[in-house]
Design brief:
Layout lengths: L9 H4 L12 H7 L2 H6 L4 H15 L5 H24 L4 H36 L5 H7 L7 E2 L5 E2 L1 H11 L33 H10 L1 H10 L7
Antiparallel strand pairs: 1-2
Helix pairs in contact: 5-6, 6-7, 9-10
Length: 229
């Protein structure tokens, strides 16, 4: 069974009001994407649901358009190759082997596209929790597979992961502009964040960069400023 999580069924392209001509807008097509239409095109119930879920996440902005187009293009190319080989070379054992290899490629792309949706949803959730570098947190936890997701691909239990990290590694999280900074290793923190708008101080910035560049980088990030240390 050929399948693409980002497939917009041909049925959608034909959806117009009775007695009218033309096609619906992009927004209308995304809203009208239905599992039944995909099942009618030959997908299984399970794959149709995954496709609808992935599409819904994509149109909500979880996945950047360039990444969406990249994965979608690869799936389209692989599926097209499979159909051509099956049609023209049904009696050729070697080429049928190649068909199976392309099927495996499609399966791998399906998994990759589903993981892409999960990854961006997870990063958004971590950023909402105040994480400065979501990629680093994911890496430290052991990768995407170490996180739990619901049936819609949304991360769950993030608070249970973030809470102990805030206590043990506060530098991994944003601090309120102007708030005191307490480094995990001790030391005397500045009274205010010298990079924050309401407590901006070039002298303190220079002193901090010289004495504690790591702390300076964290405070700058908390204030929305990027510095090279």
């Amino acid at each position: 069974m050929l399948f693409s999580p980002f497939l917009v069924s041909q049925a959608q392209k034909r959806e117009t009001s009775p007695g009218t001509t033309g096609t619906t807008s992009e927004d209308e097509r995304s809203k009208k994407m239905k599992k039944e239409d995909l099942v009618a095109k030959g997908l299984s119930e399970e794959h149709a649901q995954i496709a609808v879920d992935a599409w819904n996440e994509a149109v909500k902005g979880f996945v950047p358009k360039d990444r969406f187009d990249e994965v979608s293009g690869k799936l389209k190319e692989a599926n097209s190759t499979i159909e051509t080989l099956k049609k023209d070379n049904s009696d050729n054992e070697e080429l049928q082997k190649q068909v199976n290899e392309y099927k495996e490629k499609v399966t791998a792309l399906e998994i990759a596209s589903a993981n892409t949706v999960k990854e961006y949803a997870l990063k958004d959730k971590l950023k909402e929790a105040g994480v400065v570098d979501a990629d680093y947190i994911i890496y430290k936890q052991g990768g995407l597979d170490k996180f739990t997701f619901d049936k819609d691909g949304k991360p769950v239990g993030i608070d249970d992961i973030v809470k102990p990290l805030k206590e043990s590694s506060p530098h991994l999280f944003k601090t309120e502009p102007g708030a005191d900074y307490r480094p995990a290793g001790g030391g005397t923190p500045p009274a205010k964040n010298p990079f924050a708008k309401d407590s901006f101080n070039l002298t303190e910035q220079g002193k901090l960069l010289k004495e504690n560049p790591a702390q300076a980088q964290v405070l700058a990030a908390a204030a929305g400023v990027t510095i090279n240390v």
